[in-house]
Amino acid sequence: VNVLIVYAHPEPTSFNGALYALAREHLEARGHAVETSDLYAMGFNPVPGYADFDRPDDTAVFRIQVEQRKAAEDGSFAAALAAEQAKLARADALVFQFPLWWFGLPAILKGWIDRVFAFGWAYSRNERFDSGRFRGKRALVSVTTGSPAVRFAEGSLFAPMEALLYPFTVGTLNYVGIDVLPPFVAYGVGRVSDAERRDYLTAFRSRLDGIATETPLPFHSLSRFPDPLGETIVPG
Ligand SMILES: Cc1cc2nc3c(=O)[nH]c(=O)nc-3n(C[C@H](O)[C@H](O)[C@H](O)COP(=O)(O)OP(=O)(O)OC[C@H]3O[C@@H](n4cnc5c(N)ncnc54)[C@H](O)[C@@H]3O)c2cc1C
After folding, report:
1. How far apart are CA 136 and CA 116, in angstroms?
2. 186 lines ligand 1 (CB under 6 A)
3. Nearest to 91 by CA among 4, 32, 29, 20
C-alpha cells in the first residue's frame, strides 16, 4: 500500500529518529510505497497565514477557514501545502512518529495539521467522522515518552495515553474519516535499558507489519449524533 510517514523530531540520532528510519526501511522492505514528511528537516513552517494561499480572498482581515475553503475550491493552496496535501491524498496508510511534548504533539506537527488538513479540503460540516473525506485511510500513531508507563496508568499522576492522544486520534484523524489503529507507545525511552529499547524496536516492527490489516479502534459516527441546532446533516 502507499504509506506516508510524518515525522516530528529535530534530531536524527534520537530514538524517534531510529523509529522513523526503521519504519521507512521496514515498510519499503515489505513492498510498500513509502513517502515521508520529515518536518524539521523540511523546515516546515507551522504558522498559518496569507502565505498558505496563492490568491487570498481578503487581504485586510485574515479568516483562515474562509481562505482555506476558497483555496480548496479554486486550487490555490501555496505549493508547500499542496505538496503535503497531495502526499496525504495518495496515502492509504499514515504513520505519525513523534515524542510526547507537554502531554501532546510537538508544535511543528500540530501546525502541519492546522495548515494541511484545511477546511473545504480535508473536511466540511457534512464531511466528518463516518462521512469524512478520508474514509478508507488508516493511521498508526507512534509516540515516545520521557516518563515511565506507570505514570500513565488510570488514576496515576498523568492521564492514560488514550486520553492524551484523544485530540489527535479522534479530534483530528477520526474527524476527517481516518481509521486509527491502537497507538504504539515507547514509554520512558531515556530511562529504560538498552535491551528494553531494542524490544521497543522489535515490537514496532511487528506493528508496522499489521499496518494494512490490523483492526482499528472503534470509530465515532456522526450519524448517531443529531445536529445540535436541529438541522439535517446530509453526508457527502
Ligand atoms: C518540550 C518537551 C516537552 C515534554 N513533555 C513531556 C510530557 O508531557 N510527558 C513525558 O512523558 N515526556 C515529555 N517530554 C520528554 C520527551 O517525551 C522525551 O524526551 C522523548 O520522548 C524521548 O524521545 P527521543 O527520541 O528524544 O529520545 P532520545 O533522548 O534521543 O533517546 C533516548 C535513548 O535512546 C537511545 N537511542 C537512540 N537511538 C537508539 C537506537 N537506535 N537503539 C537503541 N537506543 C537508541 C539514546 O542513546 C538515548 O539513551 C518532553 C520533552 C520536551 C523537550
Report:
1. 19
2. no
3. 4
pLDDT at 136: 97
Q: What is the pTM of this model?
A: 0.96
Please give the radius of gyration of the chain, using alpha carbons only, rounded to the nearest integer. 18
Counting from 1 in the atom list of ligand 1, the atom nearest the Cα of 152 is 11
Ligand 1 pocket: which of 196, 197, 200, 202 to mutate (most atoms within 8 A of CB):
197
Among 24, 25, 98, 100, which residue has the most ligand 1 atoms within 8 Å of its CB, making it the best to mutate? 100
Report the run of H or E that residue 36 belongs to, with start and end: strand 33-38
How confident is the model over 91-150, as pLDDT tens digits?
A: 999 999 999 999 999 999 999 999 999 999 999 998 999 999 999 999 999 999 999 999
| Alpha helices by DSSP H, the chain | 15-29, 39-42, 64-74, 79-90, 107-116, 161-168, 194-209
204 Cβ inside 6 Å of ligand 1: no
Poorest-pLDDT segment among 19-23, 105-109, 196-200, 217-221: 217-221
CB-ligand 1 contact for 101 (6 Å cutoff): yes
- The residues near 200 (Cβ < 8 Å, ≥ 6 apart) are 19, 186, 189, 192
CB distance 71 to 117 below 8 Å: no
Q: How far apart are CA 119 and CA 124, in angstroms?
A: 6
Confidence (pLDDT) at 221: 80
Cell numbers for 81: 501545502
Q: Distance from the CA of 123 to the center of ligand 1, in angstroms?
A: 33
Inter-residue contact 151 to 158 (CB < 8 Å): yes
